[in-house]
UniProtKB/TrEMBL annotation, chains A, B, C, D:
Transmembrane segments: none annotated. Residues 2-263 form the Glutamine amidotransferase type-2 domain. This is Class II glutamine amidotransferase. GO terms for molecular function: transferase activity. Gene3D superfamilies: Glutamine Phosphoribosylpyrophosphate, subunit 1, domain 1. It comes from Microvirga aerophila. The keyword Transferase applies.
Amino acid sequence: MCRFLAYRGEPIFLADLVCAPAHSLVHQSLHAVEAKTGTNGDGFGIGWYGERPEPGIYREVRPAWSDENLRSLCDQVRSGLFFAHVRASTGTSTTRANCHPFAHGRHLFMHNGQIGGYARIKRRLEALIPDDLYDGRLGTTDSEAIFLAALASGLKDDPVAAMARTLKLVRGLMNEAGIEEPLRFTAAVTDGDSLWAYRWACDGKPPTLYFREENGSLLVVSEPIDDKDRGWQEVPKGCTLVASAKGGIEVQCLNEAMNRLAA
Amino acid sequence: MCRFLAYRGEPIFLADLVCAPAHSLVHQSLHAVEAKTGTNGDGFGIGWYGERPEPGIYREVRPAWSDENLRSLCDQVRSGLFFAHVRASTGTSTTRANCHPFAHGRHLFMHNGQIGGYARIKRRLEALIPDDLYDGRLGTTDSEAIFLAALASGLKDDPVAAMARTLKLVRGLMNEAGIEEPLRFTAAVTDGDSLWAYRWACDGKPPTLYFREENGSLLVVSEPIDDKDRGWQEVPKGCTLVASAKGGIEVQCLNEAMNRLAA
Amino acid sequence: MCRFLAYRGEPIFLADLVCAPAHSLVHQSLHAVEAKTGTNGDGFGIGWYGERPEPGIYREVRPAWSDENLRSLCDQVRSGLFFAHVRASTGTSTTRANCHPFAHGRHLFMHNGQIGGYARIKRRLEALIPDDLYDGRLGTTDSEAIFLAALASGLKDDPVAAMARTLKLVRGLMNEAGIEEPLRFTAAVTDGDSLWAYRWACDGKPPTLYFREENGSLLVVSEPIDDKDRGWQEVPKGCTLVASAKGGIEVQCLNEAMNRLAA
Amino acid sequence: MCRFLAYRGEPIFLADLVCAPAHSLVHQSLHAVEAKTGTNGDGFGIGWYGERPEPGIYREVRPAWSDENLRSLCDQVRSGLFFAHVRASTGTSTTRANCHPFAHGRHLFMHNGQIGGYARIKRRLEALIPDDLYDGRLGTTDSEAIFLAALASGLKDDPVAAMARTLKLVRGLMNEAGIEEPLRFTAAVTDGDSLWAYRWACDGKPPTLYFREENGSLLVVSEPIDDKDRGWQEVPKGCTLVASAKGGIEVQCLNEAMNRLAA
């Protein structure tokens, strides 16, 4: 279980959300509250959009709480759209390439959750990723594999349907392999303009996911970074929060998208 | 606040104590019980005596719980005298050179505690270390400075009196600087044969320290690595556990040694 | 292009070969002579057999020349069979999991060379590795993929034929993908008793490989670690050096094994 | 011996100088031409001024050539004043805190050179640094010590005279200690507006230092990053290049400043 944060709005310094708040992400790297694991010390990463079409990425294997570089970057970098993630590994090793967010072209992806029995379907899952995307697989995590599989399933064109297809596909592989552990998936995706945040689990127990709108900005978090009663709304289970480039925010039903596929 | 473990006895694999027990040191790096900080993820180190007069040292900046090298080493290395330490920094940066144990010739030293207001006396403390010892200062911690100051105060010849002198000296610098934060010091020293473990604080609140004798072996820990009722004895506050090369174990009064100096 | 060293014989301290000689492997990490790349600073690793059936492994992403832990370990660890490797990446990232040697059960493998156009066949190569072996794929290199594919091809039972089959298989994938860059492969394998060292390339230009026998010990290196005229023999191109557990050393023709497969 | 680069002018992406040119600093980390050591793989750092008064800092212990984070940052960060440095250690360990540039408030400092016999005067040199500055000593290098000593000598007010005083002071300590190895010092300092680059050695053999003016921008380098005949001028030995905030560039005599002190 990991912790993450996504921001879209007026450009602000990353430090304002990543380092400063009482329950900032850096704080959560040492003391998460709603996570199964209180410590998220298996690496971290930030991804942000600046003047280039592609996002900047800084990922490290050390815990976020002691990384001087992270503090300095967050103090300097101002961005209107950024992701930040602190990692608690579910088995794969602590390398930079296994830290979130993952980037592909203009896209960023980060994940909190787990493919149950991943080791038993890893190779088959990877085999479904086309060569041109697979070349971008730099690490070995289930999270990165889901991201690349989702890109292959049309993430750029229809992010909700594509993710539904991907989760269905992963579930299929799990069923074939007789895996009983659940697939739990809370994640965020952006193409540099719009933002999608998913919350789904095959056993109805997806990790927590919250958002807050304030003065035209949107903040999406795995757990509140300040007082719980300060306007945080839960993303309902089985749903996707869609914040389109034009600014409108709506909650779509991911379950429904999956059911349509099943039919 | 850090956690540590020292072993002397029949040669055993380090893994038997560092990795295997329910509350092993690796476990404590993520979940310490009696520490003020539950997570000790700011680097770690092991030091052990093998065929050479000087001990081997492995120190890393990553958390112990995710370090594959540590697991492999502890599985391979068998030793009759070794130290292991997981670090929770009290301010200095997370570098290998700031991780315990510290080595000097045949000696090893590790520490749990803190010099209150260290920044205000650091330079003066360092100025007291002779050049030949100061050349061995590789990091910037208060712990390493105490070790080198203790070596300068005669640690090799009279480990209890020398440490009493050193603590007195540090207290003197703190007083001169008007520092009100306490000096707390729980530490272990070995010369490759004998072992000393100190527990002292100027405010009567030194970090915990336990030991257990079993079939001729001695285990000294900052907190029990298995059930608390399995023969663990507390080292009393203000005392030093002395396990001499010949095998005898006794508890000496460190306070008394300090009082003698005061007189 | 990397540099490596394998030793089998009377137990010696690793430092005697890895750190001490004029052209030791640590020296070669900064100044290799016969390598296309003079600097091998993209991580390193050692693997050695001690009291356990499985070898110990220490791998790090920093250059070997500045790693204090490596120096300390090589000073302490004495072994009758060990591998050491300094890495110059051919494209994959610098993570511990991408450093050699790779371990599987009792086996160690290390490699100097490259699968030309690896990115274009990576997924297909991985798809050939059975799930139980694939679960042991911790990194993303071509080297580790060859090792696992070779294990799947019977490396444990017939190391020469299995490697011939594996190289043939990789060549087949390269041909299918229309890859024109060569496959070059100089590698060493051990099961903890016997040792095999391969030198082969599809374009007749495999990386260098030397060995020296001395007082019953065998040393295999990518380039001499001391004066070239001190008894070093070249492993001929297209050949495998076989040092069986019983001590006999012979050079077998790998090309022939491959030709038999072609027939 | 290290390699470095300083830029002041129209805001540009750091990548344009640090990563892109044929002999970019990243290239020099692996293949320096004019350095005594061809490889500068003992860590690196960048410092840049953005929207904050204080500069941003990114320092890492890995070689610059393989650091994905460095590439991404240099692609994203645009600045009108920045420093970049690749390190070849002269003895102190490879930690982030020992990597250049060093920061203090608005100031940045980086260095190529060495205090001969540093170990023998380290403690005395440190003792000359006032406590408030010494608290900012995070590492153990001679370079950082010179920087802090120069700040204590008035670097903020009169950078040329203060550096002359500091070098004189260091020479004094070296003479007292009977050190025969030379003091060689090529360095750059900025306060966020103006820039100073020093080239001096007690034996008349300071490391190389070049600069180029182009369309109102100034580039200072330890060796040219593109063709040597493209307008590079050498900073003469014993001189300081002064680029004041108003834009004028002049070369001042550091030797003279030192002689005045001697009088």
